[in-house]
Recover the amino acids of this structure.
């Protein structure tokens, strides 16, 4: 393994709402290696974006980071002052967002905005910053960058704007790029171009990427390591090959099982039944128990431990590494085949959802 | 349909923008009603500025033997009870209405923007206190508030400016705060924060320019009502206080009792109030349309 650039430990971010406390991020650990890409997956509302915003310390009232540490190169970001943190934002860590259509300020030209991002962290003149902005636009593959730099965001397409966002984020040579669903709002061909661009720039700069997505296809394409989140907690981590070949947690299995496969059109698309538990009224035991095809009595009672099931693969589940018997002698499906069969019966009659909804089990949306 | 498809296909690469304001200006130029409004306003502004040159008579000096003459070549709009030239008085009245109206709106805008920016920027308890206070102000009808202020501070142009300005401040405060709150949630503000911009910088550099266009539109429209308010105060006997000064509202009051035998004394100042207000309204609506970059064709 390479050295760790970002180490998140026991991160908890809660939101105080009128109905009660929402534990949006509840004890999250994750590591991002230098030059590596960490994919963070999970369905809507599982705390992916809040984790990213917590790392950037951009959580606003009524939310608050309750505890934990976010070490970037052994500096705990959560202990920095606000002005020290501003030096990190956009400089050591940059962020790009899901909606390229609204993430740029409509009243400034794109060149102007990139130049501003540069000048926030570098002591250079306006002219020099604008030249560098044009250079960055050229680098992210925007044709005729001199002219584009003088245009306003509304004069550009979604893919162009996302390129501008990337140019802006990378203009300060960050060590870590947090990309929050960077391709979700784009059409498929543009998606591929943007992902390819991110890959190229990662190689060129030996930059780390934290890639948040609910698209497992993007993960397979981009990520080295994967963190699967569910209801504010990490339920499984491992490198991308392990997660795709040998998923341990039933939720991860469900996610992979609900991917549509090309050339396979028999039957309905599999989905994970049910929805994420209400964050104001979380179940006592395992948070996934109510939707889990392999649920056992202990799951309803006691939250499962976060244990290593294989070297480098950690899962929050009572199922033992073999995926068969529970860790603390309880009755359970006899073997993998049976667990799989149980899962199939549960999900078999389930889907009238479209492929996209089914893909992440985003039912009830 | 065919022509639409064709334009979509052959549409050239977007030309480089010449700047937000210049784009807005070129759109304004193609907006017919706005141009009409602009011309009307220009007529009144020219009339007010060059009143001493244009006006054929001294507006405050009457010739009693000329009392209550109908419109003629000598007196385009006739003469009033004291034999003063009505045309000259309407011209000089434009000076009062426009200066008092403009200064009052600028004062209201300044106070309102400070309050709105502080409330929208700070949020929390500061926001609550300031906004409940403006709610109270808004609950009182503007003209009533203005009457109370003039009654309290006494007659005079400055008092009218204060009265009208104070009654507009809460409108601007509320508008700016509302835009700032909406902008605070916007993606580009989050993006600016993630780029390391400080809170004051985000407020002034990123949010303010976006909140400014509705303020400009509202201020233009407020000019129309300010002119009516100033005339209204004059009509109610709360004008500049000096009977020699020509003021449209007071001119209406003075002539109200001659409505049957000298209607021209009502029609001309009344038309001046109405037309100038319509001018600002047309311009305000035109600005609203041309300042929105999303309406760009």
């Amino acid at each position: 393994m390479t050295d760790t650039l970002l180490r998140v430990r026991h991160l908890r971010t809660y939101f105080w709402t009128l109905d009660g406390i929402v534990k949006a991020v509840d004890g999250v650990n994750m590591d991002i290696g230098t030059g590596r890409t960490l994919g963070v997956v999970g369905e809507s509302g599982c705390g992916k974006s809040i984790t990213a915003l917590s790392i950037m310390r951009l959580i606003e009232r009524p939310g608050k980071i309750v505890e934990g540490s976010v070490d970037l190169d052994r500096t705990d970001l959560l202990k920095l002052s606000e002005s020290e943190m501003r030096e990190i934002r956009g400089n050591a860590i940059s962020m790009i967002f899901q909606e390229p259509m609204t993430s740029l300020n409509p009243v400034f030209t794109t060149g102007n905005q990139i130049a501003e991002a540069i000048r926030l962290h570098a002591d250079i003149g306006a002219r020099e910053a604008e030249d560098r902005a044009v250079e960055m636009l050229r680098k992210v593959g925007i044709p005729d960058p001199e002219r584009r730099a003088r245009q306003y965001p509304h004069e550009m397409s979604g893919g162009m704007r996302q390129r501008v966002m990337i140019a802006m984020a990378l203009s300060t040579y960050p060590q870590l790029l947090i990309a929050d669903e960077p391709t979700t709002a784009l059409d498929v061909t543009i998606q591929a171009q943007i992902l390819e661009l991110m890959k190229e720039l990662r190689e060129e700069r030996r930059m780390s990427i934290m890639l948040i997505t609910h698209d497992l296809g993007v993960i397979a394409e981009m990520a080295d390591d994967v963190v699967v989140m569910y209801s504010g907690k990490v339920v499984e981590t491992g490198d991308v090959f392990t997660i795709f070949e040998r998923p341990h947690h039933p939720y991860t299995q469900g996610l992979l099982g609900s991917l549509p496969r090309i050339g396979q059109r028999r039957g309905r698309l599999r989905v994970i039944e049910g929805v994420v538990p209400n964050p104001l009224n979380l179940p006592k035991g395992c948070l996934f128990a109510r939707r889990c095809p392999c649920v056992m009595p202990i799951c309803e009672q006691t939250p499962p431990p976060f244990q290593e099931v294989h070297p480098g693969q950690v899962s929050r589940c009572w199922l033992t590494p073999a995926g068969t018997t529970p860790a603390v002698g309880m009755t359970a499906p006899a073997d993998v085949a049976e667990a799989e069969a149980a899962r199939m019966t549960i999900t078999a009659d389930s889907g009238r959802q479209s492929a996209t909804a089914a893909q992440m089990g985003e039912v009830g949306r | 349909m065919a022509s639409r498809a064709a334009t979509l296909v052959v549409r050239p690469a977007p030309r480089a923008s010449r700047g937000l304001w210049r784009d807005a200006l070129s759109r304004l130029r193609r907006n017919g009603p706005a141009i009409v409004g602009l011309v009307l306003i220009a007529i009144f502004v020219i009339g007010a500025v060059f009143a001493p040159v244009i006006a054929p008579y001294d507006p405050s000096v009457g010739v009693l033997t000329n009392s209550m003459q109908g419109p003629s070549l000598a007196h385009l709009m006739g003469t009033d009870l004291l034999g003063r030239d009505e045309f000259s008085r309407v011209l000089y009245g434009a000076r009062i209405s426009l200066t008092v109206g403009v200064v009052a709106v600028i004062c209201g805008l300044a106070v309102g923007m400070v309050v709105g920016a502080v409330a929208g920027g700070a949020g929390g308890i500061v926001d609550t206190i300031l906004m409940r206070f403006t709610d109270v102000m808004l609950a009182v009808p503007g003209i009533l508030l203005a009457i109370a202020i003039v009654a309290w501070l006494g007659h005079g142009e400055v008092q009218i400016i204060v009265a009208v300005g104070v009654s507009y401040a809460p409108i601007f405060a509320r508008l700016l705060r509302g835009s700032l709150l909406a902008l605070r949630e916007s993606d580009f503000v989050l993006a600016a924060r993630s780029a390391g911009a400080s809170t004051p910088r985000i407020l002034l550099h990123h949010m303010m320019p976006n909140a400014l266009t509705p303020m400009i539109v509202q201020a233009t429209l407020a000019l129309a009502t300010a002119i009516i308010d100033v005339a209204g105060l004059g009509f109610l006997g709360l004008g500049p206080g000096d009977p020699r000064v020509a003021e449209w509202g007071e001119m209406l009051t003075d002539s109200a009792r001659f409505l049957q035998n000298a209607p021209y004394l009502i029609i001309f100042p009344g038309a001046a109030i109405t037309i100038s207000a319509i001018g600002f309204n047309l311009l305000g609506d035109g600005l609203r349309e041309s300042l929105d970059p999303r309406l760009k064709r």
In short: The longest strand of chain A covers residues 4-17. The interface with chain B takes residues 56, 58, 61, 83, 86-91, 94-95, 97, 99, 102-109, 116-117, 120-121, 147, 150-152, 154-156, 165, 168-169 of chain A (CB under 8 Å).
